[in-house]
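During the second year of the project, the team shifted from modelling isolated chains to modelling whole assemblies. The rationale, set out in the original proposal, was that interfaces cannot be judged from single-chain predictions alone. As a representative example for this report, we include one of the complexes processed in the last quarter. Its constituent sequences, exactly as entered into the pipeline, are reproduced here:
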Amino acid sequence: MSVSNTGWTPKIVAFCCNWCSYAGADLAGSGRMQYPADVKIIRVPCSCRVNPLFILRAFERGADGVIICGCHPGDCHYTSGNYYARRRMTMLFSLLDYLGIERGRTRVEWVSAAEGAKFAKTMNEFVETVYTLGENRKLRDIRCRK
Amino acid sequence: MPKIGVFVCWCGSNIAGTVDVEAVSEAMKTVPGVVFSTNYQYMCSAAGQKMIADAIHEYHLDGIVVASCSPRMHENTFRKTAQAAGLNPYMVEIANIREQCSWIHKDKEEGTRKAIVLAKAAVAKLLHNQPLQAGTSAVTKRCLVIGGGIAGIQTALDVANAGYEVDIVEQRPTIGGRMAQLDKTFPTLDCSACILTPKMVEAAQNEKIRIISYAKVEKVEGFVGNFRATIRKKARFIDENKCTGCSLCMQKCPSKKGRDEFNMEMNNRPAIYIPFAQAIPNVAVIDPEQCIKLKSGKCGLCEKVCSAGAINYQQKDELLEREYGAIVVATGFRPMDPSPLNELGYAENKDVITSLELERLMNAAGPTKGTLLRPSDLKHPREIVFIQCVGSRCDENTNRGKPYCSKICCMYTAKHAMLIRDKYPDTNVHVFYIDVRTPGKNFDEFYRRAVEQYGVDYIKGMVGKVAREGDKLMVRGSDLINNRQVEIAADLVVLATAIEPDPSARSIGTMLTASMDTNDFFTEAHAKLRPVESPTAGIFLSGVAQGPKDVPETVAQASAAASKVIGLLAKDHLVTNPCVALSDELLCNGCSQCEKVCPYGAITYENREVRGPGVREVRRVARVNPAVCQGCGACTVTCPSGAMDLKGFTNQQIMAEVDAICL
Amino acid sequence: MKKIKARALSLLADGTVKRVLGWERGEDAFDCSPALFENEAEMERFVYGTCAGANLSKYCVKMGKAEGKTLVILKPCDTLSFRQLLHEHRVERDAFYIIGAGCTGMMDENGLLAKCAACKGKEFAVYDEIIDTEECRLPTGTEKRMEQVEKLENMTAQERFAFWQGELSRCIRCNACRNVCPACTCIKCVFDNPGSGVQSKAPVTDFEENMFHIIRAYHVAGRCTDCGECSRVCPQGIPLHLINRKLIKDMNELYGDYQAGLGDNERTPLTSFTKEDAEPGIIHERGNG
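Output from the structure prediction step:
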């Protein structure tokens, strides 16, 4: 876990599709590949199930970073879900960037069921980036601040 | 509030080693909704499952959270446990505290903290779970096979022999496909027609099989077990039931300028014709482009000579509507046209031919009656050059052909070379190749026979230019092993052209919502484990439509597809996945956005009276067919009003998880 | 334009339409608001001129349910909104008689409306008849449509954040932008739905700066015709259209030119894809982070 001297640790939500990335995360686990406990995974059937509202909700509730993982383009279990997800996330990221939200807080990564190492590496990188950015203040709902 | 039980598994020391399981189960006792929480060494064991079942009874639990290994591992186990104890199986949630916690963290305190958060998230989700019931749908016990080549025939025979009805829809006037055009087959060199035509006859005589030739599938609606297809049977201007296949009309027809498709257009055929002697159905067809009667109203000779009275110039296309439980795609391939590869001179030189053209030239029923004569002057060729990988294994960026290996060319070229050397020992045969690939039973032995026993000259290298000089074709290429340029004065050049999916495949793929790769081959549901199924339920793949294959592989895959079809048709009802999309008609705007992103065509719209608090009006609303929906959730995000939701992964469930993780 | 009023009166008189959706005169030259006229007497107050900035398309969603045809007067840019609503099955074409009204740019007390300064053109996407003058067909739009968006893109992230924080913090959450938006026609808006997880009312938090406008812009992405009504009606003068325009600009650049409300009920950029689409990371690699 990344801990700053103020005791702050980032909260990171990872949406993983059931067929590829969630299995990739499981594989990282079976391979005992370490990544920070700051990452908590939410299983969704497909990256196309990830509503931008969920991401905004996470930020509003105090998440410091949100990452969406899905099957590689062309490998979607549902044939085309990740293609829709790719456009949706691109537009959401663009919107957040335009409003001045730090870029490093959002990421999309395609991780196959065979890529346990990639999953762990991606999570390590992402946590590092978010950790460097510090606490998410810009998108956080005042009601949830402690 | 629902009463929830939490069961924390040690998984021996797998979890308990880095997660304080006692602390987790204690912490969970304070979570709202949780009325019981415990931990045990192996929850998945019989004793662990009994512990769960007992707690369900004792505490009247409405739902359970098992904090254990990945749901990919034991979700089904615990669902069954719950069901056996009288709980709806979808009132079970798994907190993955092994693969996604204990195994990836070393610090026990940290692991424990995370495990608690994950278990809380599972409880938060479970509080929004609804009992789900898997639905059922009936199965129409009939199979549609699109394509009547060896793949389609084999699938049809196997399905029919299991007792189910099969329709074969073939776009050409006869079944038989590419294999009917082949002369001999490797590696046994038996005559293709001799092994294929009995199967064609068997298909024609099988009472369960209906051959719909000269037809195409125009529309497919429905879903696994319940497809409805519209088939256009093109007018052949012949009454199929009357025609005896005597071929007298062919002899008398004055219009002889039709190109003979069966012989790769190397000779002409009459306007009224039977593609080849063993055609099934053995019924003539009139080519409306060539028929004088159909074009000008004059002639009518065939009608006069047909003693069966089978000719009908007024015949129109016919539309058939048929219902099916399963659909098999067996659309096959065609050789790529090598004309754009200018340096090989296919378009300019009649004596540069493709391998399939060579098959016809070598075949006793071909344009030269089986004597190998070159097309330009009908002389016997003494020097023959084969060029391999024409349009195969190309750099995708060069636009010169296909990126894939066509797989069959190495073997059929060895076959051609061997047959020519055997029949015409005075003819020299050279083969320019990049690699020789012979991974198949008795394949390498076969290739070595071509080299060692028949003295075929294999040259490793590419050909740069084929140019006519006098009556010779000068083939210039490189010999990479001897590191030199070679030039061969050839009489005939044979191109092992890439095979590509039949051009009809793309539209069929779209119609069936069956996914295809960038080369228009159909994609299998899983490259290794489900190689004969399309990701779209109820659609199966047979033969080259899925990727390059030789005859034995095609037959094997065709039978495999048939066994999958039989497995489906043997069921009276299909149990559907209950985690499907559901539209709240009170919120639905009827805007059709969801319909556009559904990969399965599971969403339709209808005008329906919508009733709710203060609402009673007819609205255009979305309806999800639960038997077709696969539960991806693409529609839920597209829906602007949030009317569309996904059971098992609802907006509220996911947001509850988000909240539990973030707070 | 008297011609439009005369034509509306005659269509009312001969029974072709049951009512007229137009604008009525108010206190002064700029006071001109959408109104419904059902007879000749009511039509006394009808007006069409440079004050008729309001886009009447959205009202058609409700009017379409009324019995008999409604005459609606649409300016060129308004017809895009109407046609988009047709694509989304929110209006029935048969329920309306559409007069395409020529436009030379609309004004308010501050001069030419922002949306007119970046006029998208004078073509009508849908109509039964057009009433205009030569002058109405002259090319307009002196301001480059994406000029202001580009200006923002060129700022640093911190500057952009400050800019939007400054603008959006003035939001009083009156919902005018949502209520006027012809793409916001949900039977029940997510912000009013307790089940949506984003229900919210009064501006008691900084939700407005953060979430409301992001969600709103995202919800209309691909369907927004850039009619500019959101900014026109904002009592706080927040340039909300710049958010929508940014998404339009990105979709055009990344997925090919697209104008909502044109075409033949095709998919929007967010309900279609190509296998070669850019990865979301492209957003993080370009311009100022």
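The domain at 581-647 of chain B is CATH 3.30.70.3270 (Alpha-Beta Plaits). The interface with chain C takes residues 518, 586-593, 596-597, 605, 620, 638, 640-642, 651-652, 655 of chain B (CB under 8 Å).
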